[in-house]
Amino acid sequence: MNTFNNLINGEWIAGNSQSPNHNPSNLADIVGHYTQADAAQLDLAVQAAQAAFPAWRNGSIQARSDALDKIGSEILARKEELGTLLAREEGKTQPEGMGEVTRAGQIFKFFAGECLRLAGETLPSVRPNIGVEITREPVGVVGLITPWNFPIAIPAWKIAPALAFGNCVVLKPADLVPGSAWALAEIISRSGIPAGVFNLVMGPGRVTGEALVNHPGVDAISFTGSVGVGRRIAQTCAQNLKKVQLEMGGKNPQVILDDADLAQAVELSVQSCFYATGQRCTASSRLIVTDRIYPEFIAAMQRRMAAIQVGDACQAGIDIGPVVSQAQLEQDLSYVEIGQAEGASLLIGGERLSRATDGYFMAPALFVDSTPAMRINREEIFGPVASVIRVKDYEQALAVANDTPFGLSAGIATTSLKYATHFKRHAQAGMVMVNLPTAGVDYHVPFGGRKGSSYGPREQGRYAAEFYTMVKTAYTLA
Ligand code: NDP
Q1: Which of 115, 185, 295, 457 is least buried, going by the fewest C-beta atoms within 10 A?
Q2: How much distance in Å is there from the Cα of 199 to the middle of ligand 1?
Q3: 252-434 belongs to which homologous superfamily?
């Protein structure tokens, strides 16, 4: 039996119990057994991080940069193997898995540079003979809690800036997919980073995650996951005056205007809604289509979706892998029923599929004749289920796009500079895409949303320093 332990203070330590990591394409295939940390082990990890912090924060930025660069290089060199592991545990296709692993490697390399570029400011004082310096310092021990849908990229985009700017880390990955995070921790453990600077504690959110959030030795929490859990974490952090950053759900609109390039609009809609099995916080699930292009668009979507190959994530020629778990599959299928009960018409898909192996396969579903008030257009489904809302013109499309409690990503397909420019300014989202899918972002620029999608400073790019550092203002009499 393959077992994988927690990394605490540079040692691989078993917890009291273990959890099997299943392949959602083939339930008979167990990726490995991953140990579960209890509150006592979590406490050891936090203590190790606290003890390692003074030397790490005051240490050489060259050493930090070299370690991050080394981690990035190894991830990139092993992208095929790690991409296969990711596809096996999460159900993204192998090419999608390799893409995510590549992203993780690039992020470490980016922050290998950023840790050398952390600039401050010098200003004259309003008083004579005084200088003012503004510098950034690490926050301390940072707790990172990550979801199952990006098992290596999200840990990477939190760990890399945390370490780059001199913090120590305790990572709690999603219990459903700990394999990629474990592989990343193993790479980090050999990078030259001192024991205790980076710690991995696996286990369920309600035990290990809560213990991390509540621990008085943790100075900040960066969380990506659902809105419900995020809200609770924010409340706990506020009570304890802990710094907090939340990235949560989305109900991202994709507007298709009459003047759009039809083939491009169909392709980017299929990408947005269904690739990675629709399990991306930036996935679109609301296609908002203007009157004139609507009939052609629907017909073209139906043809294109009929050609999508759903199957084993590790097999060649597959477009879309399985849903991640039984619970997620049940949720997706229940929204198909909810949509029908609400009066939307199911154009295509929405049924469970059987394949050679027992897995959570589902045909991507598209509803038409849906209205903005329907639950399928308001609640995050987080699977391959999308719906089309017909509108009369751009103004109505924009109003419908913004009529959501979320605000992560918003897309528009149009050949009109006027509408594209207006949409970029008026879409209530943290990220706007013109003639591009709502999902698919660069790693060197900020990532995040508004309204119910995000809370606190942005992640990624140089903006990551906002969360992973504290500002100090120093006055010196000349
Ligand atoms: P969850 O909120 O269920 O879990 C996210 C993480 O929080 C997991 O590690 C989970 O642990 C942990 N957790 C659960 N309960 C607690 C708790 N009480 N205290 C502390 N930690 C806890 O989300 P999912 O994993 O189901 O991920 C899907 C969600 O993530 C979707 O809503 C999606 O939109 C969002 N997401 C947002 C992104 C963004 O950047 N905006 C990117 C990717 C996903 P465990 O799994 O072990 O229970």
Answers
A1: 295
A2: 19
A3: Aldehyde Dehydrogenase; Chain A, domain 2 (3.40.309.10)
Spatial contact of 360 and 22, defined as CB atoms under 8 Å apart: no
**Secondary structure class of 28 (helix, strand, coil):** strand
* Residue whose tokens read 């709502």: 438
* For residue 393, pLDDT beyond 90: yes
Other beta carbons within 10 angstroms of residue 17's beta carbon come to: 12
Q: Ligand 1 pocket, 282 CB below 6 A?
A: no
Q: Is the CB of 226 under 6 A from ligand 1?
A: yes
- Please give the structure tokens belonging to residue 182: 């474990």
Task: Give the residue-averaged pLDDT of 91-98.
Answer: 98
Atom of ligand 1 nearest to the CA of 247: 41
State yes or no: pLDDT of 1 exceeds 80.
no
Q: In this structure, are residues 181 and 169 in contact, taking their beta carbons and an 8 Å threshold?
A: no
- Element counts in the chain: helices (H) and strands (E): 14, 23
How far does residue 163's CA lie from ligand 1's centre (Å)? 22
Q: How confident is the model at residue 2 (pLDDT cuts 50, 70, 90)?
A: confident
Which numbered atom of ligand 1 lies nearest the CA of 408?
Answer: 41
Residue 455, pLDDT score: 97
Average pLDDT for 412-423: 98
Q: Is 381 in the pocket of ligand 1 (CB under 6 A)?
A: no
- Checking if the pLDDT of 292 tops 90, the result is yes
Sorted by where each begins, the domain ranges of the chain are: 3-248+453-477, 252-434
The CATH number fitting domain 3-248+453-477, selected from 3.40.50.720, 1.10.10.60, 3.40.605.10, 2.60.40.1120: 3.40.605.10
Q: How far apart are the first and last CA of the chain?
A: 67
Exposed e or buried b for every residue in 448-473, given b needs 16+ CB within 10 A? bbebbbbbbbbbbbbebbbbbbeeee
Query: Looking at ligand 1, which residue's alpha carbon is closest to its atom 13?
Result: 205
For ligand 1, the distance from its centroid to the CA atom of residue 148, given in whole angstroms, is 7
**Side-chain half-sphere CA neighbours of 247 within 13 A:** 28
- Measured from the CA of 459, which atom of ligand 1 is nearest? 40
Residue 391 has φ and ψ, to the nearest 5°, of -130, 165
- Give the helix/strand (H/E) hosting 224: strand 220-224
Calculate how far, in angstroms, residue 381's C-alpha sits from the geometric centre of ligand 1.
Answer: 14
Catalytic residues: 247, 281
Q: Which of 22, 42, 149 to mutate to test the pocket of ligand 1 (most atoms within 8 A of CB)?
A: 149
Same fold, 3-248+453-477 and 252-434: no
Candidate from 248, 328, 330, 408 with most ligand 1 atoms within 8 A of CB, to mutate: 248
Hey, whose CA ends up nearest to atom 36 of ligand 1?
A: 225
Where residue 478 falls among pLDDT bands split at 50, 70, 90?
confident
